[in-house]
Structures are given as structure tokens and as C-alpha cells.
Design goal:
With 139 residues, the chain is mainly alpha-helical. It has seven helices and four strands. It has a two-stranded parallel sheet. Strands 3-4 form a two-stranded antiparallel ribbon. It is globular.
Length: 139
């Protein structure tokens, strides 16, 4: 595995990988990277379903019931990850949208990164968030 990353330019230091598919194959990643730190970004079930139904590239399922089952399947994987005693942290963006950064700050400090409240406030855009679904003006 290391050879693949090195061929792509990675040498050493923290490696960050984000994918909604990681929860489906986490045992493989946990075996290869036993000291990995895991971050689950959580949202309310109904917000995820509504978002998936509005997103063009998420066409795997057609209706609310199918997407709800999809969300429940992911939550089963999340519970497996928690029971596996991974170095795991869960955060809820809804809190950040409301200006509550305590959870994020604790995570940043735990990862030994530098907390910059101004940069976070500049990055978080509550105007794009409506009921758990990001809104983009396409005009």
C-alpha cells in the first residue's frame, strides 16, 4: 500500500482521505492503517435523504423509502466502527452552521492542528445551509 501512495507523491506526514464509501470498507483500511484517526461527519437522517434526492449524481435510488434504507445501512456500519474501538470522532455540521464550534475545535486540537476561529467562521457559510441541505444559486 505504501508504494502506491509514494508513487502518487506522498512521502510522510498526515494523510487525509475523505469518502462516503469508507464506512463500507472500513475493516480493510483499519487493518492497513491501525493507528488511523477516523472522523464521521453526521447529519440527521431526513436531511441526508432530502439531499440525496435533490442531487443529480445520486441517482442510485428513486424514492424517499429507498434512500432511508440506504441511510440505515450506513448507520449500521457506523455502529460497527464504534464497537470496533477505532480512534473515532463524530461531528455534526449543523452545530457549526449555528456558530457552535466547540466540537470542531476539540477535534482540531486533538489532531494537533492549529485552531483558527476566524478561518473557520470565514469557511462556514450558513447562507448555503437550509434544513440540512446545501443550497447553491445556479443563476
Amino acid at each position: 500500500m505504501e508504494g502506491i501512495f509514494q508513487r502518487q507523491g506522498y512521502e510522510e506526514g498526515p494523510l487525509f482521505l475523505a469518502s462516503p464509501l469508507l464506512c463500507l470498507m472500513w475493516p480493510i483500511w483499519a487493518k492497513v492503517f491501525p493507528d488511523a484517526q477516523w472522523i464521521l461527519v453526521r447529519r440527521k437522517d431526513e436531511d441526508i435523504v432530502r439531499s440525496c434526492m435533490k442531487t443529480g449524481f445520486m441517482g442510485a435510488h428513486k424514492g424517499e423509502e429507498e434512500w432511508s434504507r440506504w441511510v440505515q445501512n450506513h448507520k449500521v456500519r457506523f455502529r460497527e466502527m464504534v464497537r470496533a474501538d477505532l480512534d473515532l470522532w463524530q461531528i455534526w455540521p449543523r452545530r457549526m452552521i449555528r456558530g457552535k464550534f466547540k466540537e470542531l475545535r476539540e477535534l482540531v486540537e486533538r489532531l494537533e492542528l492549529r485552531w483558527d476561529k476566524t478561518a473557520v467562521e470565514d469557511f462556514v457559510a450558513p447562507i448555503l445551509w437550509k434544513g440540512g441541505v446545501f443550497q447553491v444559486d445556479e443563476s
